[in-house]
UniProtKB/TrEMBL annotation:
NCBIfam families: PRK09194.1, proS_fam_II. Homodimer. Catalyzes the attachment of proline to tRNA(Pro) in a two-step reaction: proline is first activated by ATP to form Pro-AMP and then transferred to the acceptor end of tRNA(Pro). As ProRS can inadvertently accommodate and process non-cognate amino acids such as alanine and cysteine, to avoid such errors it has two additional distinct editing activities against alanine. One activity is designated as 'pretransfer' editing and involves the tRNA(Pro)-independent hydrolysis of activated Ala-AMP. It is found in: Cytoplasm. The keyword Lipoprotein does not apply. This is Proline--tRNA ligase. HAMAP family: Pro_tRNA_synth_type1. The gene is proS. PANTHER family: MITOCHONDRIAL RIBOSOME PROTEIN L39/PROLYL-TRNA LIGASE FAMILY MEMBER (PTHR42753), PROLINE--TRNA LIGASE (PTHR42753:SF2). It comes from Streptomyces humicola. Consists of three domains: the N-terminal catalytic domain, the editing domain and the C-terminal anticodon-binding domain.
Length: 561
């Protein structure tokens, strides 16, 4: 059916909402795609829903193409599995928590690793039941601290999440490869400009993780990009090497205002960032292996308690020597939202040892489920260094570039973190139980809509790639009744030929307003039925280039069908 603007629930706005900071937020609201329901929660109006559906369709097609099986799990979940893996603590306030009438604890799912592990444990008993890739396209809930960028960062949002289950590491590597290829196809089809970057540093050991980042000024991620080789990484997993100050890795502690026991507040003041900046991980050596330990929230790390918790493994501070000849190791940390990389040096009582904070949020092999504040207390941090553009690439030494981007996808070889937690085994070929290994893979579906808007919009408004546009052709009936008749006739013929059409047949709206709205709405081709309608001549306009041409109705139909 031709979408007639005269009958659609669609009201464009001249002004953007006062609190809108990003182009996508302003334009998606102004063009009538979405409306804010409450902070970080959005209503998708008819045009917006079409775009969301288009993104969903592309993702679904490519997931099916790699053998993904679509399922739908609940969003309302018991809290217990998230307690069992330590993620209820890790997520902290990000997790929406609720109770039922009997007082039982629930959460609204932020992501579903735990629950999928249960589903597979329930269904798969033998190696013959694996490998399997399961996915869903579903509403997720995260009580984000600053849901300010419109649908880019919702508290309720749409995600495609998939999970692979394999009996061995080769299987996991293959599932990961399949997902990576599918994501490349998806983001190419959607018309994204994107980079694939490492999301976990070399210091994290075996597990592989990459993010798909869409460069955009509105992005909240910062990534380093090497102009000379193919190295690119999210600074959350920074592998930038800054030569240790004074050769010991021990920085100028005196730069801090408070020489004794700096707290997160003094540190934050020193950095010029809010005290709410989140420090994620601590790098230590566990049994000689450099390992990251999760440190959620604004806490301080007591290494003694950490060592106690990890016993009988030995825990040592990472020293400057550990970084020698290891350009792959993490040296920095980016505070989310702040776009700066910080290097945290050691507790002076243990100097010249150096404890490093990284942002890679994945506990290492020994350090599974270690949660600061629950399992150990935190002590103190000291010095900070900001990674600057021009710092040496860890792979080739060329000067790095630093850019802002939106995380649109994330693929991750989890390994056995969750299958260990829930003892997910299947009977192996040799008749013995085998612990299953797992991957998880996300795409922000609703975020993709906003991220595309960020990358493609221009001064006039939205400007969609055809694959996701709410229509192929926007037919504008300039005003007179005869023009409207011809416009509806052309629109009907185009629809019959399989072209998706939006027709502006509104009465009593000036041609000027209609043209402005067509630019704002951003359908790729605009067909104007205007002053030469009586001669059977219409105007074709390319939304992106602005090129326009007068053609006969027949030519227009032939070209667009
Ligand atoms: P971010 O770093 O932006 O907070 P994340 O790393 O927490 O994202 P993941 O847990 O990796 O997100 O989730 C998978 C995907 O879901 C992300 O790559 C992103 O595209 C999307 N996503 C995550 N949080 C949100 C949100 N609050 N609103 C919309 N999409 C989101
Ligand atoms: Mg997040
Ligand atoms: Mg992220
Ligand atoms: Mg992520």
């Amino acid at each position: 059916m031709v979408q007639r603007m005269s009958r659609m629930l669609l009201k464009t706005l001249r002004d953007a909402p006062a609190d809108a900071e990003t182009a996508s937020h302003k334009l998606l609201v102004r063009a009538g795609y979405v409306r804010r329901s409450t902070a970080g929660v959005w209503t998708w109006l008819p045009l917006g829903k079409r775009v969301l559906e288009n993104v969903t369709r592309v993702v679904r097609e490519e997931m099916n193409a790699i053998g993904g099986q679509e399922v739908l799990l609940p969003a309302l979940l018991p809290r217990e599995p998230y307690e069992a893996t330590g993620r209820a603590d890790e997520y902290g306030d990000l997790l929406f928590r609720l109770k039922d009438r009997k007082g039982a604890d629930y959460v609204l799912g932020p992501t579903h690793e735990e629950i999928f592990t249960h589903v597979v444990k329930d269904q798969a008993t033998s190696y013959k039941d694996l490998p399997v890739i399961l996915y869903q396209i579903q509403t997720k809930y995260r009580d984000e601290a600053r849901p300010r960028s419109g649908v880019l960062r919702g508290r309720e949002f749409q995600m495609k999440d998939s999970y692979s289950f394999d009996v061995d590491d080769d299987g996991l590597a293959e599932a990961y490869r399949l997902h990576r290829e599918a994501y490349v196809k998806i983001f190419n089809r959607l018309g994204f400009d994107y980079r694939i970057v490492s999301a976990v540093s070399g210091a994290m050991g075996g597990s592989a993780s990459e993010e798909f980042l869409a460069p955009a000024a509105a992005g909240e991620d910062t990534f380093v990009d090497c102009p000379a080789c193919d190295y690119a990484a999210n600074t959350e997993a920074v592998t930038v090497v800054v030569p240790p100050a004074g050769g010991t890795g021990h920085g100028p502690a005196e730069e801090l205002d408070t020489p004794d026991t700096p707290t997160i507040e003094t540190l934050a003041a020193h950095l010029g960032v809010p005290a709410s900046a989140t420090l994620k991980n601590l790098l230590v050596k566990v049994d000689g292996e450099i390992t990251a330990v999760g440190v959620p929230g604004d806490r301080e790390v007591d290494l003694g308690k950490l060592a106690e918790h990890l016993a009988p493994a030995t825990v040592e501070l990472v020293t400057a020597e550990d970084f020698e000849g290891r350009p792959d190791l993490v040296r920095g940390y980016i505070g989310p939202q702040h776009g700066r990389t910080f290097r945290y040096l050691a507790d002076p009582r243990i100097a010249p040892g150096t404890a490093w904070i990284t942002g890679a949020n994945k506990p290492g092999r020994h350090a599974r489920n270690v949660v600061c504040g629950r399992d150990f207390e935190v002590d103190q941090y000291l010095d900070v260094v900001v990674v600057e553009p021009g710092d040496p690439c860890p792979r080739c030494g060329a000067g790095l570039e630093i850019g802002r981007a939106i995380e649109i996808g994330h693929i991750f070889q989890l390994g056995r973190k969750y299958t260990d937690a829930f003892e997910l085994d299947v009977l192996g070929k040799e008749g013995k139980p085998v612990r299953v290994t797992m991957g998880s893979y996300g795409i922000g579906i609703s975020r993709a809509v906003a991220a595309l808007a960020e990358q493609t919009a221009d001064d006039q408004g939205l400007c969609w790639p055809r694959e996701v546009a709410p229509a192929d052709v926007h037919v504008v009936a300039a005003g007179k009744a005869a023009q409207t008749d011809l416009a509806l006739d052309v629109a009907g013929k185009l629809e019959a030929a399989g072209v998706r059409v939006l027709v502006d047949d509104r009465a009593g709206v000036s041609p000027g307003v209609k043209f402005t709205d067509a630019e704002l709405i951003g359908v790729p081709t605009i067909l104007v039925v205007g002053r030469r309608a009586a001669e059977g001549i219409v105007e074709l306009k390319d939304r992106r280039t602005g090129e326009r041409e007068e053609v006969t109705v027949e030519t227009a139909l032939a070209r667009l069908s």
